[in-house]
Amino acid sequence: MTRLVHWRAAAFAAVALVAGAAAAQPLDLHRLDAVASSEERLEDVSGDLRASFERALARYDDELAARPWDVTGRIAQCQFIDDFASTYEYVEWSDELYDRGDQCAAALDERFPEHPEVVLWQLEREYDDEKIVAACDDVLASSGRQAWTAGQMARLYTLLASATDRLDGERRNLPKTAEFAREALELDELADVRVLLASALLEQGKRPEALEVLTSPFDGHSADDNAYRVRKMALYAELGERDAVLAVHAELAEHDAYYDHVEAAHALRAVGANEIAEVELDAQRDRPYTAADERARFLVAFESGTKEEALAAYNAWRDTGFQADPFGINRLALFGRHPSLPWAARDWLGLAGVLGALAALGLALLVPIALVHYRGLVVRARTGDAYPISGWALRHAWLALAAIVGAGVLSLFTAGPMDLFGEDGSAWAGIEPQQLARMLISESLIALVLLVPLGVAARRLEPDWWGRDWSLHKSAIVGVGAALLFRAPLLFVLLVASNAQHSVQFDSDVWRSLEAVDERYGFAAAVWVLAVAAPVTEEFVFRGVLLRAFSGHLAFGTANALQAALFAGAHLDLAAAPYLFVLGLVAGGLARRSGGLVAPMLLHGTFNLIVALLL
Amino acid sequence: MRTTILLAALAANVVLAQPEIDAGSAPETLDAKSAEARGFEFWQGRLATRDAAAAARWFGMAAADGRPLSQYMLAEQYRTGTGVERDLTRALELYREAANQGLAAAQMMLGQAYLLGLGGIARDADAAFRWLREAARQENPEALFMLSVLYASGQGVEQDRDFGWSLAVRAAALGQARAAATVGPRFLYDPSVRDVEKGLHFLRQSAESNDAQGAYLLALEYLRGTHLPRDPGLGAQRLTQAAHALPAASLLLSVLYTKGIGVEANAARAAELLDAGLAKATPSDKNSFAWTLAAGPDEDFRDGALAVRIMEQLTADPSQRFPAFLDTLAAAYAEAGRFDDAVNAQTQAIEALPANVTAERRQPFERRRALYRGGSPYRETP
Q1: How far apart are CA A88 and CA A79, in angstroms?
Q2: Is the ipTM of this complex over 0.85?
Q3: Most A CBs within 10 Å: which of B139, B197, B208, as the mutation test of the A interface?
Q4: C-alpha span between A610 and A193 (Å, rounded)
Q5: How much is the pTM?
Q6: Residues A232, A548: Cα–Cα separation, whole Å
């Protein structure tokens, strides 16, 4: 009995073990498939792909074995590996592909050291512009350049011009870019640098040369690139060449290639071809309309549409969001063009936003005032001095600051339609020169008007504030002399450099505005703004009101430094801030020593007049 | 004062005591790349005065080490006999070595040698094509132009006129003067590719590169006034530029000096140019010139008597009595008012036409004979 139980138990255990083992394996129903699985097929394809790749490489090897001198053929082989790697980047053996690409490039370098085609191929694959420039410079400096053909040298200069341009964020190296582009064109009429060169020449103000480059019968760029054509349209538009813009626009339809219709519309609008611009904007409907598109449509309607069309386009733009016209600048421009158009509630809201912005600015300006006030209290608590109740007070300082800053804000409303918060932060750059000119002129006039009450107060508070301790003669000599000393380096450049105006460049919104005034209203207007209106108002505010008000609460040195810092900050130019700060300090010192404002005004006016000579 | 003089003397001593650069020695430690650079310094005269012999020594050292550019430079020196004794065979060997290493200029020279049978090698259109193709691929302008000729004529490669044209245009765009002179007129006159701006640009480019053909063609544009404002003065200038190399330019310039067109009339200078031109001109050049004198649309350039003189001299040789030449002689007679002689000459021209000539080709000859019978000279339409 016991033996039977043992045998049964053993049999049961054995069966249980087998069943358990079987149960641990999941059932693979694909084993029942009559055709191959997806994974199997993918493996097959991958294997085929690899075999195809190897066959293609072998073909290259065979062809090149009979042509050991064929450098372009070897480059094609290496390029094939690179292109294959990027086309099939998800294959399992992609790492091996990249390795083989590196090996091919190394073998190429070893077989044809310093060969122009190899160097160019390497440079054309290089992303680091500084390395491109350095490599090109090496070639140009070496005697090995004698081995380069005209076409190869043209390609080198093309790479050099493009890399130099990309590195030139502050646009200070435009002459170099232009020089390299010209070299390329000297060697090859079809070098693809015409738009680059024309753009660089235009930025340097060399309009006739830019036009000559663009209107050449030769253009080495691909004929199928409509985006390139639109860039040409933009350049022609900047040159005011309406016929050329329309001629290039006509070519767009002949090639079925993508281009930015809004950009084309801008160029057309700039030369007054508004009906065609409207057609371009309509064509943009095949993709979702962005706020920028609506704005472009509004600008076209504003310039050439009926008042109803302009209002409809404005509302369509406002519908994209509050940022479209947050302060009603464009609604006010529309009002100026079509006064009879009705105002919506949100339009008034925009203007109310202005008041809010001004109030916020006013509050912000209280910060330095408050700091001075409380610092003064602390000092007086220690010294026991009385609180100054006569002369310029801190409230006058606040009003003066508010007038200067408020004038800048209010001048925005005289600019005409503009996009305050454009896409990519490019709003300011998109403002046209005549708008900048209007803004600067308006700002100087508004500031003068806003400062009238303080001017009246000045007659009461400091009757002889123009000059107490120095004569006019002495103020003039010292003021002008100090300015000449300040600007000695710039004067040297102006006198020595043959192309001074383009060897010195300022990169600030103020400078662009001044150039715009010069272009739009003439040199006399620019001199008035730069050398008369600005010095008079700024000296009055900073050295007249602020310095005197702060001096009642702080030691002169501290007060002078604070007003100089506010003076530098008010120009919104970080690069020029140190220079302006020192100018503010010196002007403040002059104001104290002379007992008046004539000397600092002449210092400031002469300082600015020298800059005006660059216009 | 004494100190100053002493210091000046010391400085002068230091300067004057500098050793002269020994162009002859080649230190063993100088690597091939440096040797090549040194060769260029002597070749271009950067180190001291230009010294081709020294350059050859340095290039030779670098060439022996396999530097393709040095091989090419040394080959050039052997080809031109600059700094070394002229040796075309050695030059070709060096070109081949450099070409095998992918140097485009050497490939072009080797291709040219095969094309023209230079340096003792047999002409070989296929080899010429192969090497020129390599150089052209690297955008060597001369190779591009020569290759365009091969494609146009079907030498060494299957004929493809369109591709040949595009190669010639590419060569011209890269500044090849002769290519520019070739493509310029076609851009001006061939309706299928007409582009006046490009045509004039290439002619100017060619002329400014001192290509005689380009200068001559540009001169014609100034004289004809078709695509440029008529300016005989500028035309005369360009003809003067081309006259030393092109008999056609010399001949046309002689007419300007005879008639005082664009230059002050000067019979002696005209005679000098005419003689010089006729001495170098091919029969075809003479025929073209005489045709212009006889039947050109511009009255200012017509001179029947001179045309008669040239063509009578040319056709006096029985081997030159081609229909076209006799046709020109007839036109010359007609321009000179000798219509009977014109009819006779034209009849001879028609009889000289091949038996299988097409009616289309025969008709102009017949028409002109009819004109002469009617007592009218033939005029080309502008």
Answers
A1: 14
A2: no
A3: B139
A4: 36
A5: 0.70
A6: 56
